[in-house]
Amino acid sequence: MMDRRYLCATALPLAAAITIGAAASEPGRLANGGADACELITLSSKRMTLHDGATVVLDARSIATNGPAVMMVGSLVHVWQAGAGDDTPPAADRRIIGVLRDSSGVLWPVPAPVSGIEALHPHVASAGAAGWHVVLVTGKERVMEFDSADVWYGLFDGRTWRHFQHVTRAESARLLPGWGSHLIATPEGPAFAYSLNRRFVRESNTPENRGLVLLQRRETRWVVDTLRTWDAAWAVHLIADGAGGVRAVYTGEYWANGRSHGPVLFMTRHDPSGWSDPRVVLDVSPEYLAAPIPVEPGSTGTVTSSPRYVAAPMLVEPWSAGTIVSWITGRRGMDLDFSAHEDTEWGIVSTDGTVRRLGRVASAEIGDRPAALQLDAHRAVWFIRNGDSRQELRAFLAVDSTVHDLGTARVPFDNFVTHGAVLPDGRILIVTGGLGRTPSEPLASSYLTEFAVRCTSERD
Fold first, then answer.
1. What is the pTM of this model?
2. Is residue 109 reached through a cis peptide bond, with omega within 30 degrees of 0 on the bond before it?
3. Are the CB atoms for 162 and 101 separated by under 8 Å?
């Protein structure tokens, strides 16, 4: 029998809502041209069951909508045939990389593009009438990164793969979810970025060994362009700027005035002429700590370092005032303090590339990663685990420049990374996983839960 702990630790990472109930409690109050009460409502919660009755556990690290259809992909996918119980192993002959939910709500498997390869860390973006763009990785990974990996691209039309091709060989690449960017669709073609980090070489912090790598498809060929940086880049995301280029928002450190800063938030732009110089757009560390370091045998000096850092940038676009960027802030060494928390914060990326910091959304346990989703041109929503609860998810709604607490929903879950998507009609789709409750159920399964944000002004 498969170990339940393995499923909780790997195949069920989405800390979102398996909510069996009517509505969220504690509806928040917000002001939007007057008093307006809003609440988070649970519309449905269904086991992820394919059209043939098979049950799926899906590590859905990338989700994209295409009209009312949704495609969800991930590295770890298990399929149990219809009628499987808790002592039934997953089907070994069903190798899929995700699930496609069609416009009628029926779920279909997304097969691996080529048999005989282990497709890792797929990312998906809408290709309009053509279906979905997908990039994925093959290779042997170690902690956080690949020494060497191959990046592939394919176009999935909902039934078959087309144009499956090798893009590039990536060396010393951070391609894991949360580090590599989301795949985005631009007028020129799909684009994806990851960080280069050659750590175990002499003078590893020279520009030849660190940087960002952009992959962008233009017509029938892929362009690969590397931005060399002195210090390692960490998590990166891309924004299509509508002017023939993309902006990269990434976290990294820098050294100035005798001390280390960060990680902080950087931004740079790429267009057909190449990369612009990266610049710091957010540094959340106004205070610094001094720590002794060896200068030469028998003596020590001191170096000051930032006690706070920026991590896990999340983007919501487009928005009325620009692009929302949300991030996690924490304090160095706080992972040793079990009472400490990280903060989810947010701001606006304006058209000139500056970031206007708007403040804190909520606190979260260390390691929790919330979802930030766009509802419409004026509203965004976050889903965050409620403290250290294993049964509650809290939602926050941003209207213009103010964040409002929508309250909590009861959400049993075992992992702490949240992903979801917003459908064209405003419904919020969240993927989550749970263990079987009876011997007649599969050992585990994923769920699709639909939420809606309802405000009194919308009901008048």
1. 0.82
2. no
3. no
